[in-house]
Amino acid sequence: MEPPPRPAEPRFDFYTILAEREEVVPPAQGQGRGTTTPQSTQPTTPLSSPTPVVTDPNAQYMLQLGSFRRVEDAERRRRELADMAVRAEIQTVTINDGEVYHRVRSGPHGAEEVGRLSEQLAGRGINSLTIRLRE
Questions:
Q1: What residues have CB less than 8 Å from 120, skipping those under 6 apart?
Q2: pLDDT tens-digit map of 57-78
Q3: Dihedral sign from CA coordinates of 105, 79, 32, 102
Q4: What CATH superfamily is the domain 26-133?
Q5: Which residue in 61, 68, 76, 77 sits closest to 116, CA to CA?
Q6: For 1-135, where are the E strands, in sequence order?
Q7: How far is the C-alpha of 115 from the C-alpha of 118, rounded, in Å?
Q8: Could you give the maximum distance between any two Cα atoms of the chain, in Å?
Q9: Which residues does 18 contact at the CB level (< 8 Å), separation at least 6?
Q10: Torsional sign, CA 53, 56, 57, 61
């Protein structure tokens, strides 16, 4: 008797599709960039006024709260955020010539919530990068 056919392996195109639907939102005039460098594992300094320029109050936004080469550093950031009641996920991406980064992201959030959350995090020394999700 022939064994039953194996179900097809699930295909997750989420990260490919999501990358095509993202747009970085610049901070308001005169503010810092609001992100950590990919190699950063050290605490970042808070921004003076991290509120992003939100032009569409009906849009959805993601906050990137760090990008790390070591998954352990990304996990540490995610736990730090969990202690602050901020839900975050780790997205592992490969860029350029096979460089692997582990991005810590929270969202999607509405316009008002993303501004409030980025200010709260900056007050705790965590810089963020606001990313608008396209339709």
A1: 84
A2: 788 999 999 999 999 999 999 9
A3: negative
A4: Sporulation related repeat (3.30.70.1070)
A5: 61
A6: 22-25, 60-68, 89-95, 99-109, 129-133
A7: 5
A8: 72
A9: 133
A10: negative
Answer yes or no: pTM beyond 0.70. no
Find the length of the chain.
135
State which amino acid sits at residue 5: P
- Our separate counts of H helices and E strands in the chain read 3, 5
d(CA 104, CA 77): 7
Decide if pLDDT at 79 tops 90: yes
For residue 125, what pLDDT is reported?
93
Task: Return the SS3 of 20.
Answer: helix
Q: What are the structural domain ranges in the chain? A: 26-133
Per-residue confidence band for 109, with pLDDT thresholds at 50, 70 and 90: very high
